[in-house]
Amino acid sequence: MDVYDHGRTDTHTLRHPGTRAPCGLVKRIKGDKAMIWSSLAEFFAMGGYGTYVWGSLGVTIAVIYIECFLLRQRRKGALTQVKHELSLDKRLLNEESS
């Protein structure tokens, strides 16, 4: 893999005697600065990587949603437990005082 720094491939690491030649990825990036799609289908295809990109996005959103759901469930459980413990403490105090 090449080093791509500030729009150039002529970084100091490329001048090191142990480095390889620049790869094709840099040459493609060098030509156009912006990604432009001519259709919505092309946008969703993402140059052939659409399944990976949208699949990763879907899994990430699902995991975040599940984490929020589980967090709410744990919070409700903790609040219920605290309320139960407080009511037990009040009962014990009432029994001790009478």
Layout of helices and strands, plus pairs?
Layout: H1 24-31, H2 40-45, H3 50-97
Structure description:
The protein has 2 domains: 1-34, no CATH class; 38-97. It is built from 3 helices and no strands. With 98 residues, the chain is an all-alpha fold. The mean pLDDT is 78. Helix content is 63%, strand content 0%. The N and C termini lie far apart (79 Å).
Helix fraction by DSSP (H/I, runs of at least 4): 55-70%
- Listing every helix as H and every strand as E from the N terminus to the C terminus, the arrangement reads HHH
Enumerate the spans where pLDDT stays under 50 for 5 or more consecutive residues: none
Number of strands: 0
Short descriptors:
single chain, 2 domains, mainly alpha, 63% helix, 98 residues, elongated, 3 helices
In brief:
This protein is mainly alpha-helical and 98 residues long.
